[in-house]
From TrEMBL:
Gene3D superfamilies cross-referenced by the UniProt entry: Amidase signature (AS) domain
Residue ranges of domain Amidase in the record: 42-499
PANTHER family for the chain: AMIDASE, OS04G0183300 PROTEIN
Cross-referenced Pfam families: Amidase (PF01425)
Superkingdom, taxonomy of origin: Eukaryota
Descriptive protein name: Amidase signature domain-containing protein
InterPro entries in alphabetical order: Amidase_dom (IPR023631), AS_sf (IPR036928)
Length: 534
């Protein structure tokens, strides 16, 4: 075939069968793999090229901390397996990113460090449970996403900064705040650096960066997804969860990673047989449902309030009844309570030492929180970088704690405010199916202290004439034209199936994610057609 004819045929093919990697979903990619339009090797090459374009070069988003040196060989094996044995399922040969606090096999060549040089080179005993489940389903673990170091628990440091990974940036405005702590996972999904990702949340760390980067995030009930192999903050509030471009992709990943794990005993108490969350994807899921608005928690942000209030009409059009206001009986107490702070800092001291003790090797010799504080002081040039990134006050406060009567009282207060007099009381009082709030603000706290699920879906964007704050960026703009924000769905324990249905119905009716793209320099240009071997 003459060269120009070959070129034209590839162009036509790309228009018809090659999904746009900026937006394409996992099922679209799987369809292309099944039809033989491209291979998993092609996908890995394309995503690695996209990472190379904008991660450290160009917009320098610092979303990906490191990539898997064996990703291409693993993709080739999965391509061969597809030919010889067939597909394992919808994740067969699909490249995903994991937050850098989720353990992956050391011999594979990637580190698990929570962004800190203190854990660089440490040897984990095995994949985290969630990583093993994804691998078993045929996924390719493409790399580790950057994060707020130690999941934002080292100190008062700008969102998305880690010593190893640098400063993650939101792709919707230069030097924009990507939020955290799963910053890299959110940014990578926003501009298509992988097909899907996992983050982790203690309080807001999945849903907030999902909101700020125009993607979908699911923080599951504590006990639905194992935390084994995930660098901890708090055994009472931590969980891993999916961050993706669509509710469909997030539901798919949740279906794979959920389930009991003997290494995380809280998962052994989850209810019976878990549902297939893909079956929750019903555009009519909101019909006849009652959604409550705890208006006392809303913050005064003009664009967000306008978009949220307008969304109530969307919900009504989709058949839902809105109860507004539906305020928590204990709302003022919850806003004033410091119990969560005490629980987290006490848990962190104990839980991080337990995690480190389970490592097979720690090259830096750290054993506990006191060692981490000293490591940072000794290696301040790597970790405590002035003027914005030199704080470790949370570490220091946590080191001073012990599990005493005040700690156990704080834990009981969290459960009382979050569950009995909080989410559960509000759902029951107003006969609600779910609670809705703007994600930005206080939406994550009730779900965090109760251990209950929360899902964030894109809601809108700051207008082009919004004031840019702060000026100059110090080092991030927290408000700027085009910065996204989301809406949160909150429910009682193990209500993920219903929440996914509500989130999906809203997403399908509004299609907010598609209404604005990242700024031009932050969007990689490489597509599948650019890496095909012809």
């Amino acid at each position: 075939m003459p060269g120009d004819m070959l070129s034209r045929s590839v162009t036509v093919l790309s228009e018809n069968v090659f999904p746009d990697l900026y937006e394409s979903g996992i099922l679209d990619l799987q369809k292309g793999l099944e039809l033989g339009h491209f291979t998993s090797v092609d996908l890995v090459k394309a995503y690695l090229a996209r990472i190379d374009e904008v991660n450290l070069k160009g917009a320098a988003l610092h979303a990906v901390l490191e990539t898997n040196p064996n990703a291409l060989s693993q993709a080739a094996k999965l391509d061969d397996e597809r030919k010889s044995k067939g597909s394992r399922g919808p994740l067969h040969g699909i490249p995903l990113l994991l937050k850098d606090n989720i353990a992956t096999l050391h011999e594979e060549g990637m580190n698990t460090t929570a962004g800190s040089y203190a854990l660089l080179g440490s040897v984990v005993p095995r994949d985290a449970f969630v990583a093993a489940k994804l691998r078993e389903a045929g996924a390719i673990l493409l790399g580790k996403a950057n994060l707020s170091e130690w999941a934002n628990y080292r100190g008062k440091v700008p969102n998305g900064f880690s010593g190893r990974g640098g400063q993650t940036l939101c792709p919707y405005y230069p030097n924009g705040d990507a939020s955290g702590s799963s910053s890299g996972s959110g940014v990578a999904m926003a501009v298509g650096l992988a097909a899907g990702s996992l983050g982790s949340e203690t309080d807001g760390s999945i849903v907030s960066p999902s909101s700020k980067n125009n993607v979908v995030g699911i923080k599951p009930t504590i006990g639905l997804v194992s935390r084994a192999g995930v660098v901890p903050i708090s055994s009472h509030q931590d969980t891993a969860g999916p961050m993706c471009r669509s509710v469909t992709d997030a539901a798919l990943l949740l279906s794979v990673i959920a389930g009991p794990d003997p290494r995380d005993t809280v998962t052994l108490y989850q209810p019976g047989v878990l549902p297939d969350y893909m079956k929750a994807l019903d555009p009519n899921a909101l019909k006849g449902k009652r959604l409550g608005v705890p208006r006392i928690f809303l913050r005064d942000n003009k664009a967000i309030l306008e978009a949220f209030n307008a969304s109530l009409d969307t919900f009504r059009a989709l058949g839902a009844e809105i109860v507004d206001p539906a305020d928590f009986p204990c709302a003022e107490e919850m806003k004033e309570s410091q119990a969560e702070t005490l629980v987290l800092k006490t848990d962190f001291k104990a839980d991080v030492a337990e995690y480190i003790s389970g490592l097979l090797e720690v090259l830096t010799g750290v054993k506990n929180l006191a060692d981490l504080i000293e490591f940072n002081n000794t290696h301040a040039d790597l970790e405590l970088i002035p003027p914005y990134h030199d704080d470790q006050s949370r570490f220091i406060a946590a080191e001073a704690t012990e599990k005493n009567d005040a700690y156990y009282a704080a834990l009981a207060e969290d459960f009382d405010l979050g569950r009995r007099r909080g989410i559960d009381a509000t759902l029951q009082k107003f006969k609600l199916d779910a609670i809705i709030l703007p994600t930005d603000g206080t939406a994550s706290k009730p779900a965090a202290i109760s251990g209950y699920p929360i899902i964030s879906v894109p809601l809108g964007f700051q207008p082009d004439n919004v004031e840019i704050l702060p000026v100059p960026a110090a080092p991030l703009h927290t408000q700027a034209p085009g910065l996204p924000f989301g809406i949160a769905f909150i429910g009682t324990a193990y209500s993920e199936f219903n929440l996914i249905g509500f989130a999906y119905a809203f997403e399908q009716a509004t299609q907010v994610r598609l209404k604005r793209r990242a700024y031009a320099e932050a969007i990689p240009t490489t597509q599948i057609k650019d890496v095909l071997s012809i």
